[in-house]
Amino acid sequence: MATVLGFNGSPRVGGNTDRLVQRVLAGAEAAGAQTRLIQLSTLDFGSCTACMSCRCRPACALEDEMSGIVQEIFAADAVVIGSPIYMWQVTGLTKLFMDRLYPVLGPDFKTRLSRKPKLVLAFTQGHPDAAFFRPYFEQVRSVLGFLGFTVTEVLTVTGTRAPEDIEKQADILARADAAGKALA
Ligand SMILES: Cc1cc2nc3c(=O)[nH]c(=O)nc-3n(C[C@H](O)[C@H](O)[C@H](O)COP(=O)(O)O)c2cc1C
What we know:
Blueprint: E1 3-8, H1 16-30, E2 34-39, H2 65-75, E3 78-86, E4 89-90, H3 92-99, E5 118-124, H4 134-147, E6 150-157, H5 170-181
Parallel strand pairs: 1-2, 1-3, 3-5, 5-6
Antiparallel strand pairs: 3-4
The structure holds flavin mononucleotide.
């Protein structure tokens, strides 16, 4: 059975990004995967301290909840990372999470992710134009590909402001469901 980890990088639990990530996970579950959703806003974790311990071993030296999550990512078949756009970028929470993924790179900057987990990126934005942040999404996609993930889908939900706005967008929810099914 495939294991899929989902991360919501929005501080708004129950908001659009949370709902989008949950929809991808629901698709994966419907196709037989085992899933787990992690709210980054309630995860006890801090910033990378550049101790460089992970240059020598595939683990994080910090004693917080993210160190265990890194080990779960090594074992996962697939991952979903969701973030709203804040100030044209992912949220600070999501960036903090991405910085803490440094242990997945070896000292030669080659990936230590031997399973090459599939990855769905799930973005939400207030801006109505889906093309507006596309170059930025491509950059995020590239860095996560460099880390060793196999990016299978980049979902973008536009025009979301109130927490439940996404529910009016049946087409993107269907795409999220399909992207999840493909992870299983
Ligand atoms: C601090 C802050 C900054 C934001 N910056 C942007 C932005 O630069 N571009 C944009 O399109 N939307 C921006 N938004 C809107 C959010 O991306 C949008 O409402 C998103 O769907 C919120 O996700 P959530 O419902 O999961 O919290 C911003 C929202 C906040 C709170």
